[in-house]
């Protein structure tokens, strides 16, 4: 297999009259064992593209060179062109011995330019942090309200020389919910957090998942809290906000069942327990030098909630933010835990003190670390830095351990350097070596097993050895140095919660085993919509006067939409349309397992495009009429869409394919149906 991969990438692939040659790969592609191939023409070759990206001549470590090339292939949004005289280069900040860099991967962006970028990218608010790519620079820029330069970049952000001046946005700071997982639970348990704490948190989550099926208030609060405004939830969150009830609306009911099944599956398989008093936040550095070692600044925006069923323990107020615009935020104060995945060493979880610093109030939905001390806190968290890493942060007093362990030293080796420039064949060999030697998964699994078997938990000598090798394995893509996995550390049996059905297994007596057995495997089968259900749930309140004149058109558009949706579901091997509209994909498809996040984003992008197209079918047809008439016509059309989907005469007893009778078509315009439901029609002129 090793030689076959090398031969294919070296010789290329011929399709028809085109010969595709190896180009490069991004970091995510390397993990999923995929790469870009390019078919040259008379004007451009793969070498031309690599030369255009930047100057990689001076990088003599093969793995590092491949990673630097790969940064050009990370998915991004284009924003503005920034000339070189609009940026400044500023110094990095090091400890006294120049062993640790406090500013590793982070720079600054002016408040005015941050606002321009937000408008260009169509963000609702101006983010405090942007993860960027600018020529050969990559990292995070934090808003600096005093800066007059568009960008202030540091040496640790420059990965290679490049003359390109386009600014690409890879990510930005925003409110994200946070979850425990097996690794974090194992470390917290090792450090003295009682097992009953995790069991109680899981019970609350299961109660929420059960109650949401029958209580619209619980459903709305849970969806908003657990998802943090995820765009995939827009339709069923909007339906709940506008008064549709899960026991009376079949499509809403199916989406909530899908949402519940996904969360229960993650609880059982990954111990993914929601932490209401926490966030997942991008990190940056305190440029004001106010924070001391052991302190952080954390200011978070509210996750929009209509109710307070899921309590986050925060008190929100107004502060003066970017461009002197008032922002509603909560400033966290007191002891917090900060961690970063993968979290395998007892010292990877840090207990810090969150403090209120007025000069940092403009930095929201991020964790601000100090530039003081003997070592950067991000480095103490599993060897993290500030080039875009996200940190688990919680102010839940129950999760703050009674003891703290000294952090692991994560200074990675630089790797072997060649005495010549790196060529394409070197990079191809590195790709194949990574496929053969990447051991992060098996080392992490072995760590879980040995921590579960030992009374010392993650302090067990075997676990400490594995923690060190896990760090080496995580850096393999950048250093080219493979991790060692001694045979004596290979597990001979596995705890029941790992569900290794093909291996010897035992009943775990630790907290992960208790949590696993407390969750019943959810029923993932969603019943098909039947004619009997249509008779029972057809909502006459959604019949808008005059809708009948659009029925013929509605049937044609319904069939057109359903055909496109079925094709999408077939290509991505999905079971139900509810999977797409909740962003929770219950599928065993290998297509999804390779790189679930990237495939998910691709699917959501396609679905978003289909929704926009369908909305245009309704809205564009009534352009040119005055506002009142247009609104009335839109409501008639929306009502017709609902009628041809839900009225019993349009619901056959038997549908020919596995997807059954599809329901999502009218809910593409859920806001129009909500206006009808609420009696909000306009009078025609």
From TrEMBL:
InterPro entries for this protein: RDRP, RDRP_C_head, RDRP_core
Origin: domain of life: Eukaryota
GO cellular component: nuclear RNA-directed RNA polymerase complex
Tagged with keyword Transferase: yes
Reaction(s) catalysed by this chain's protein: RNA(n) + a ribonucleoside 5'-triphosphate = RNA(n+1) + diphosphate
EC number: 2.7.7.48
Domain RDRP C-terminal head: 538-679
Enzyme superclass (EC): transferase
The entry's keywords: Nucleotidyltransferase, RNA-binding, RNA-directed RNA polymerase, RNA-mediated gene silencing, Transferase
Pfam families from the UniProt entry: RdRP, RdRP_head
Annotated ranges, domain RDRP core: 2-519
Signal peptide coordinates: none
GO MF annotations, alphabetized: RNA binding; RNA-directed RNA polymerase activity
GO biological process: siRNA processing
Similarity comment: family membership: Belongs to the RdRP family.
Function statement: Probably involved in the RNA silencing pathway and required for the generation of small interfering RNAs (siRNAs).
Protein name (record): RNA-dependent RNA polymerase
